[in-house]
Amino acid sequence: MQETFRKLRKKGKLGEKDVELALREVRLALLEADVNYKVVKEFVASLKDRAVGADVLQSLTPGQTVVKIVHEELIKLMGETQSKIAPPERGRSPGAIMLVGLQGSGKTTSAAKLAVYLKKNGSSPLLVAGDVYRPAAIEQLEILGEGAGIPVFSRGKIDPVKIAGQARREAEKKGHDYLLIDTAGRLHVDEVLMGELERIKANTDPQEILLVVDAMTGQDAVNVAGSFHERLGLTGIILTKLDGDTRGGAALSVRQVTGCPVKFAAFGEKIDAFEPFYPERMASRILGMGDVLSLIEKAQEVMDEEKSRELEKKLRSQTLSLDDFLEQLQQVKKMGPLENLLEMIPGFNAMGKGLKNLSVDERQIDRVAAIIKSMTREERQQPEIINSSRKRRISMGSGTSVQDINRLLKQFEQMKKLFKQFGALEKGKLRKQKSFFPFK
Amino acid sequence: MLEFLKKGLKKTRDALKNRLGDLFVRGEINEEFYEELEEILISADVGVETTLMINARLREEIKNNKVKELEAAKALLKELIIGMMGGEEDVALSVPVSRPAVYLLLGVNGVGKTTTIAKMAYNFSLEKKKVLLAAGDTFRAAAIEQLEHWSGVVGAEVIKHQTGGDPSAVIFDAVSAAVSREADILLCDTAGRLHTKKNLIEEVKKIYRVMGKVIPEAPHESLLVLDATTGQNGIAQAKLFQEAIPITGIVLTKLDGTARGGIVIAIKELTGIPVKMIGVGEKKEDLHPFNPADFADALLA
Ligand SMILES: Nc1nc2c(ncn2[C@@H]2O[C@H](COP(=O)(O)OP(=O)(O)O)[C@@H](O)[C@H]2O)c(=O)[nH]1
Ligand SMILES: [Mg+2]
């Protein structure tokens, strides 16, 4: 897919045929991302209407326009803004929130995570153990609640409709503002159990009914979401297991079928691996394009503010050591595969050949790290003292060649020089300094 | 098995308005026919690539056999899918000459590993086998309690440590116990893990190694549990678990819903891992041997 767009970019001009070609790729990419067949069909058709026409010609390059249009439309489809859980309405406090979905989609964990999230934002939620069918589901919620310091209302394996009603009164009495109701996993085609959810709804007047959807779900997502929505009137989606490598096209299908926003994303087994959903990021993920937003965020997270300020000081005063160098390398590595990283920088391809040389081989980072780790502390602080016998020792220790070490030392020197020229480096600028590593 | 599948899939059929049925009674074998077939297969999570491959092979078969009738085309298609899914291959679990037989279950979170173990234990108990369960999920809250519940239902003892413990230590104890107590079968539960988490995949390797220390041939089956609602990510799951340890079979669960689990065709093509069992519900009786012909029928129903 990226390939095709690159080709388009080079072409410079794009006729109707080219749009069609690009859209064929888009269609494939979306199907491979598990977006439902019908949703893809509709989406691609609507894209064509937009792409073939004046819009394409107005932009800088036609290829970029197609990328832009596809991405924009996807974002539109995913819902442009972040949607949150509203404060409980007057007279409706505690605000009940039901979590529903298929077996194994992650309801119980998500209930606990959502509770933790709400608590962090100043609320006082009550968890309700409404899964009376799956063995040990109640215990699971109790353990999670206890670990997070959130009370759990459970009444054993009685009718969940009753449990929910009792929990509601308990929450009123104890002054909880939210009631988070875990429910048993069920098939959307299970008449009896779907009826039970309707009764829980009637008994608790929920302000939210959230469908919990496994991000790895395939084509069936439309059937599931459609049925749950029809029966219950969903208000939002929680997308789980996003920490894997799934493209997550189900998000788009579900969104399209229900019209409900995806409200939260769960991306790990830890209780705080849960955050409001960013439609834009998801659009990029489904499309298989670099995610500019998350790159920036990630880079900021990883690059600890304080450390970078310290480094900046060192740079100015020319006391930069190989230890600092190594630390920077590790920071960069944490941000993920470098190729992707560079791809994600907007306009990277457009910046021309000079910058392309920056693309760094990750194995090279490992090699450099091995070399530096094989040095003594003294050597790292004062690389000048590394003579040929030291080099031989380091080379043995790191399994690299003396040339590798020479190259590293030279690059390090060059970098120091480079930064000398940036003597008047302004505060904070360093963080945005991506052309930090003079590798070839 | 066919009955279960049919029941589970009846609603799908309704939902899909029996499209394939339409497909095969209407008109001739033309481009529209292949297009509709493509939609049906992709909608069953077969995936674009595999769908195109099936379509291409079917075209060829139709040409070679000079088939004109839709009924005959349908038969060819079914044969094709049956062939891709292993045809007459035996799906029985491998049984060692001397007991215990040790089976390891793996998979991502929530696919049905623990429930499948319960179902397997139940089936073995019907054969009057002595079954032990290993509580290898030491991570998820109340995972051990869940297995213990089932152990009561099916009458199999659980070997367990504490939540938070080292899973390979439990498994080691369990394999040793299975030997010393002369169990016929040991079923090892494990925590759900995404195939992309390196440390958790390393943990699988360790569990696998540890089993071999007690019984060199163990585990006798390493089964990947796959949820039928899974889309294209199933391929990555199979590949990455397969890279960690030799996976001997797939258990395809939740076929009682409307998902058809078509991704297993691609997985079989790409990795050679056969489907050995299917899960069609949450009760202990809801596990059945995989049958390619029934699967093909259900897929194209
Ligand atoms: N409908 C249906 N549900 C299943 C099936 N197998 C397992 N489940 C349910 O899926 C959920 C997760 O199962 P569990 O065994 O805990 O998954 P694990 O996390 O992989 O061990 C439970 O609610 C099970 O009852 C199946 O074949 N059909
Ligand atoms: Mg389990």
Q: What would the keywords be for this entry?
A:
A: alpha/beta; Rossmann fold; 3 domains; eight-stranded mixed beta sheet; 56% helix; globular; B: Rossmann fold; elongated; disordered N terminus; binds guanosine-5'-diphosphate; binds magnesium ion
CATH topology of the largest domain in chain A: Rossmann fold
With helices defined by DSSP (H or I, 4 residues minimum), what is the helix count of chain A? 21
Report the end-to-end length of chain B measured between terminal Cα atoms: 15 Å
Count of distinct structural domains of chain B: 1
Assembly category: heterodimer
Specify the structural class of chain A.
alpha/beta
CATH class of chain B, anyone? Alpha Beta
Rg calc of chain B: 21 Å
CATH architecture of chain B: 3-Layer(aba) Sandwich
Q: Quick summary of this structure?
A:
The complex is a heterodimer of chains A (440) and B (301). Chain A has 440 residues and is of the alpha/beta class.
Report on the structure:
The complex is a heterodimer of chains A (440) and B (301). In chain A, 56% of the residues lie in helices and 9% in strands. Chain A is α/β, with parallel strands linked by helices and 440 residues long. Chain A has an eight-stranded mixed β-sheet with strand order 3-2-4-1-5-6-7-8, with helices on both faces. By secondary structure, chain B is an alpha/beta fold. Helix content of chain B is 50%, strand content 14%. In chain B, β6, α11 and β7 form a beta-alpha-beta unit. In chain B, α3 runs antiparallel to α4 and α10 runs parallel beside α11. The N terminus of chain B is likely disordered. At the A-B interface, α2, α7 and α10 of A face α1, α3, α7 and α10 of B. Guanosine-5'-diphosphate sits at the interface of chains B and A.
